[in-house]
Amino acid sequence: MVDPEKEKAMEEITFKSDTVLSDVHLNTPNKRHLMVRLNTVGQPVFLSQFKLLWNKVSCKDTHVKDKKQKDIQIENTVLDDRSIQESYGKNSNGIDFLNKNETQTCSSMRIEALLDNDGDLEVVRRPRLFSETKQKEPSRNKTHPKVLSQGAENRNEEQENIHHNMVKIEHTMATPLEDVGKQVWRGAFLLADYILFQCDLFKNCTVLELGAGTGIASIITATIAKTVYCTDVGEDLLTMCERNVALNRNLTATRGGAVKVKELDWLKDDLCTDPQVPFSWSEEEISDLYAHTTILMAADVFYDDDLTDALFKTLYRITHNLKNACTIYLSIEKRLNFTLRHLDITCEAYNHFRFSLNDLEKFRDGKMKFIVEPIEATFPQFLVYERIEQLELWKIVATPIS
Asked: DSSP per residue over 272-321, as a string?
């Protein structure tokens, strides 16, 4: 059971002005956030569900070669507590996706049909059913988040896991900058969208994610890949990540492979092999990592210049130790900030990221060649979020020089 004093503290949590809040959590309805516990540093931990827009048939079991089978279907879907008309389609692997162009066209046709002779909008309301008139109107009073005991969570886990179209993620909200990895960010959603769209590229692969945070991108990748090494630093963060892997084991076990949560510090040259250290590596895992990894990825981790430099050094070091050529996928959100130093709106973190990309492509050591190219974010969405134009995805092909 939850300690009464801790439960009271969880209900009285207020966010400070020096914290950072992800837009994913900001735009998620309150009823989707369920406070479940306090972590080891006293931060409230929430459990949120994110809907995956796919069929029950996984892409690895579907081989549709005829592109003419991409028929557009229009359905009414309730998202974020409001009725939104969405247009659904299917890619060549049979997975549902949001089609914004079809949505806008369909919505315009509906609006025109509702205009009278003077051009005024006539709203035709659906007649209320008798059963609806009996229902009590929802209360708009302020409510506190519900606190679950660990026992109740375990009892409901089996029943919840039957929903294969939901990813359940534990996360924090409004954290200091050093703890932003404990939140879910749009860059992870963009990367996940691409992985699900191009699932043939990830099928049966060994994948390494750097700076995985809550692990949502790794979890979705594991519905396709054979093995995903989900890495970050900090025992508290990695523990949360491991809990998320367990919460979504129904997805990875039935659709793909295994997720292994490990520590990988960009500021250190070697992987930790001390068995006394939580989330350390075994010699067998290190051997498997270097022998079979063909994909590396990182999502929305470029917000500090020193960490960006450390990440690119880590990418260079790991790719040189791999036995095979590999492809690297990096997602980033171009964030605009007004700085007193420039007295203007700048994107310093993004600019440093682009300089680092340029330096990597120009780097010559006679051992490895890096080819950098952007990926247009025109592929469909498999997760419900706002895909803004500032979101970017980059591809780096690392090939050994014979």
From this structure: ---TTSTTPPPHHHHHHHHHHEEEEEEES--S-HHHHHHHHHHHHHHHHH
- Find all residues with CB under 8 Å of 305, minimum gap 6, and list them: 348, 349, 352
Q: What is the pLDDT of residues 140-173, one digit of tens each?
A: 444 344 444 444 444 444 444 445 789 999 999 9
Residue 201: per-residue pLDDT? 97
Rounded distance, CA 167 to CA 381, Å? Answer: 15
The tokens of 307 are what? Answer: 């960490």
Question: How many beta carbons lie within 10 A of that of residue 372, not counting itself?
Answer: 16
Pick the closest to residue 211 from 178, 250, 243 (CA basis).
178
Question: Structure pTM?
Answer: 0.73
Does residue 297 contact residue 328 with C-beta atoms inside 8 Å? yes
Question: What DSSP line would sit under 178-204, residue for residue?
Answer: GGGGGS--HHHHHHHHHHHHTHHHHTT
Query: pLDDT tens-digit profile of 342-369?
Result: 666 778 999 999 999 999 999 988 899 9
Structure token digits, residue 176? 């200091």
* Largest Cα–Cα separation, the chain: 77
Enumerate the H helices of 83-149 as residue ranges. 100-113, 130-133
Q: What tokens were used for 121?
A: 């909008």
Say what the pLDDT of residue 339 is.
64
Other Cβ atoms less than 10 A from the Cβ of 28: the count is 20
Q: Tell me which residue has tokens 């130093």.
A: 341
Of 175, 148, 157, 143, nearest to 7 (Cα)?
Answer: 148
For the chain, domains (ranges, CATH) are 59-125 (no CATH), 178-400 (3.40.50.150)
Q: Which segments within 200-292 are labelled E, that is strand?
A: 206-209, 227-232, 258-263
3-state secondary structure of 345: strand
